Amino acid sequence: MKGTELCAPAADLEEIDRIIDRYRDEKGSLIQVLLTIQAEHHWLPREVLSRVAERLSVPLTRVLHLATFATAFSRIPRGRPEVHVCTGTACHVRGAPRVLSTIEELTGIQPGETDLDLRYSLETVNCLGCCALGPVVEIDGKIHGKVSIAKTEDVLKSCE
Amino acid sequence: MNDLTMRIDGKEVGAAEGMTVLTAARGAGIEIPTLCHHDSLEPYGGCRLCLVEVTERGWSRHVVACVYPAKDGLEVRTRTERIDRIRKGILELLLARAPNSPILRELGEEYGADPDRFEGEGSFCIHCGLCVRYCAEVKKAHAVGFVDRGVRREIAFIPEIATRVCESCKECFPLCPTSYLQAAWVLVKSLATPA
Asked: Do B146 and A65 touch (CB under 8 A)?
């Protein structure tokens, strides 16, 4: 695990326990707990999953199944901000591939990857529901529409 | 006990409330092929091989016998040309994953399945879930589970639990219709406890 310690801070189990306690007695709390941890820590380390399983009395196999099933969860450290490039049909024909390759060049990472300093995570998505604005780039929940190659760098910088 | 009456392949079969078509048929000595069914586990409906044709109020459709509840007046056919064709297709897909499994080869021969119809995927696991469900439902150990989804779905042992309980149990090994489970275990064992 040495590699991950290098760049991602170890998970604070007390903080994790606080999140678990928030949902503890609710039915179907597992997915809510994992979503909250994902939102606050940006990834789900193995020891956190073990802790969740233990505290919620849910088998670790089920926690792992869920954590690997949904793309909302990440088992590897995620950067801030998370950059989502829409490659849906409308964005694709409006030039998403060129925007994507510009972002790849600027950040040095491929879709699905995170850079070593945890400064960016890059992900392609299929549709953000605002095709008229294409090509669309979403950075930490903020939508940037009509992104041209020239504008790409500014869009990335605006979120640092 | 037998408060429901069905016709399976023209034979009158009694069944109790809560039984499935598969258990009713097997109780009457009618064989339906299955891969993911186990008497001490909850119905799963994973392999789809127990597919049968049911006719209810004049409407017929194809359902999987292992999860379809027995109903009064149900008419069931366990082998038709169409059923054989569907089972052949299922077997061909499964054979692409586990070409050397004896039970798959045997069934494949019976249904005339061509083992080379689809390109081999070489994963050797057919996702029947027998090991996962047996470990969870009978042994309550939860040492092995499914991870990921779709084409990347696979079984995974939890090393912390597996190294503690599996060595003395291994009850799921004979359940596996392929030999993938044993291979996965040998792998996790050698990774968890290097010699």
From this structure: yes
